[in-house]
């Protein structure tokens, strides 16, 4: 890997394109390096993962709304069109709208892959716009593989170096550039065109983090889908010769100077050398549970405590629970956020999946986590749950914060230490570093786990033959022809989509 030094430049410095981060990202995207076998296997895993969580969300309101919008935008004259999760594959729409609808379906349950470093991210959000464009232009499975490898590489590298949340900017500001870069790789575009697309994608996808604060709305699922849609449109404009604001990162009125660390900021962005394989997807990890990633290890620890310490399950036995954890966990999903909504039994599902006090309470009481049942209003309102929930707080611990930011994979951690004080005065202390499904966890996810997750989530909404067809198709990804790439979708069983009413809007 090489390091790109990033700082703000005054206009009179006239920073040349070759010195700009957007140009460096475009050079990575244009590098025709082959995808390694292990990266290929992981990309297949993540396409399965995305389809699994999309299947589980097909009838949820945000997904229904996004799908109905997409279906109102039929295929354009410039290509074959793209498929949308749910309808038959023969129903095609314009690629940017397929990216939108499928992106919402993937993101709705907060149940797909993650990478955490200086910033947060769900790099699997790159896949919907890339698949949509691939289907539209007639790309092959091999082309798609190369594009997805780039999307993951660019997003992970940006996330390692540049914090957005510290300045209340939503993490999808790294997704717009990564998706545009991935599309550029897949289409074999030149550096200049990809550079312009990256700049436009970044410029149009910077927004505040209020979408993940307080009473969290349905926009949480739409935000990354919007970034993917903007990336598709940015590539289209760049291919037509349209240019973007520059230097988009380094300009004195640019993103860094006014949205991030300011005019004196510097960053060191790791990027692959020319000819170096794009392997960043291997640094990311998926979710066994439908909840914010920083809750994954805590769910596993709560399940363990449920099974090993029945005394904790007696009503009124617990006086207090303190989760000693990282800065990010404390301030984003913990009591350090100072969001009263995180303790509100009437809060939205989106809010509850960003409340570690709620999640730990339910996982401890139930010994399990379910993507629907654990969030139901009835479950949240149980008196014994509300009572214990209000006894759970978080505290930042310097060591867990250090481990969260560690560059050493062997010590990087997303958990913490729990201290439970019982009403009889006794205490119980335990800790967990990473989730069971993490590559270094107790039960690392492998291909069979991704397939099992897909089957579990798809069986209620897909017919058995459709489940087998999809799994057979996706596992042949490197050899898929352009015609076969249309099979990277899922068709709902008869009656599933008809059971929910599509909302009316403008389109």
TrEMBL record:
Keywords, sorted A to Z: Lyase
Enzyme class: lyase
Recorded catalytic activity of this chain's protein: (2S,3S)-2-methylcitrate = 2-methyl-cis-aconitate + H2O
MmgE/PrpD N-terminal domain: residues covered: 20-266
EC number, as in UniProt: 4.2.1.79
Protein name as annotated: 2-methylcitrate dehydratase
GO molecular function: 2-methylcitrate dehydratase activity
Record flagged with keyword Lyase: yes
MmgE/PrpD C-terminal domain location: 289-477
Family: Belongs to the PrpD family.
PANTHER family hit by this protein: 2-METHYLCITRATE DEHYDRATASE (PTHR16943:SF8), 2-METHYLCITRATE DEHYDRATASE-RELATED (PTHR16943)
SUPFAM superfamilies cross-referenced by the UniProt entry: 2-methylcitrate dehydratase PrpD
Assembly with partners or alone: Monomer.
Pfam families per the UniProt record, alphabetical: MmgE_PrpD_C, MmgE_PrpD_N
């Amino acid at each position: 890997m090489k390091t790109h030094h990033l700082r703000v430049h005054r206009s009179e410095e006239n920073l040349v394109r070759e010195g700009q981060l957007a140009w460096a990202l475009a050079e990575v995207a244009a590098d025709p390096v082959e995808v390694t076998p292990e990266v290929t296997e992981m990309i297949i895993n993540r396409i399965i993962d995305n389809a699994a969580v999309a299947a589980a969300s097909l009838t949820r309101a945000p997904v229904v709304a996004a799908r109905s919008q997409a279906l109102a935008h039929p295929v354009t004259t410039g290509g074959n069109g793209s498929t949308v999760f749910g309808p038959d594959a023969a129903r095609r729409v314009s690629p940017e709208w397929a990216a939108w609808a499928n992106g919402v379906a993937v993101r709705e349950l907060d149940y797909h892959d993650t990478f955490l470093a200086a910033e947060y991210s769900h790099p699997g959000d790159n896949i919907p716009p890339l698949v949509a464009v691939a289907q539209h232009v007639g790309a092959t499975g091999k082309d798609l593989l190369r594009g997805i490898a780039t999307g993951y590489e660019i997003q992970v590298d940006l996330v390692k170096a540049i914090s957005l949340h510290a300045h209340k900017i939503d993490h999808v500001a790294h997704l717009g550039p990564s998706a545009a870069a991935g599309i550029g790789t897949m289409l074999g575009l030149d550096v200049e065109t990809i550079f312009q697309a990256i700049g436009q994608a970044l410029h149009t996808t910077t927004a505040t983090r209020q979408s993940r604060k307080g009473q969290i709305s349905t926009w949480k699922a739409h935000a990354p889908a919007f970034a993917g849609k903007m990336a598709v449109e940015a590539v289209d404009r760049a291919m037509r010769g349209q240019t973007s604001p520059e230097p988009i990162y380094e300009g004195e009125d640019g993103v860094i100077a006014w949205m991030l660390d300011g005019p004196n900021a510097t960053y060191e962005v790791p990027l692959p050398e020319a000819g170096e394989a794009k392997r960043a997807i291997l640094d990311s990890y998926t979710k066994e549970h439908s909840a914010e990633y920083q809750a994954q290890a805590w769910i596993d620890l709560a399940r363990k405590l449920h099974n090993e310490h029945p005394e904790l399950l007696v009503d009124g036995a617990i006086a207090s629970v303190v989760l000693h954890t990282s800065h990010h966990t404390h301030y984003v999903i913990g009591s350090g956020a100072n969001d009263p909504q995180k303790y509100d039994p009437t809060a939205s599902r989106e809010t509850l999946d960003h409340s570690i006090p709620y999640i730990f309470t339910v996982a401890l009481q139930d010994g399990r986590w379910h993507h629907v049942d654990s969030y139901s209003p009835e479950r949240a309102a149980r008196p014994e749950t509300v009572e214990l929930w209000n006894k759970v707080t978080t505290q930042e611990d310097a060591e867990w914060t250090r481990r969260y930011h560690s560059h050493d994979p062997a010590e990087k951690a997303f958990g913490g230490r729990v201290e439970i004080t019982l009403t009889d005065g006794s205490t119980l202390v335990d800790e967990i570093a990473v989730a069971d499904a993490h590559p270094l966890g107790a039960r690392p996810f492998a291909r069979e786990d991704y397939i099992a997750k897909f089957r579990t989530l798809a069986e209620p909404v897909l017919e058995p033959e459709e489940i087998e067809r999809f799994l057979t198709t996706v596992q042949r990804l490197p050899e898929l022809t352009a015609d076969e790439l249309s099979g990277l979708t899922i068709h709902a069983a008869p009656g599933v989509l008809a059971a929910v009413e599509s909302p009316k809007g403008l389109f």
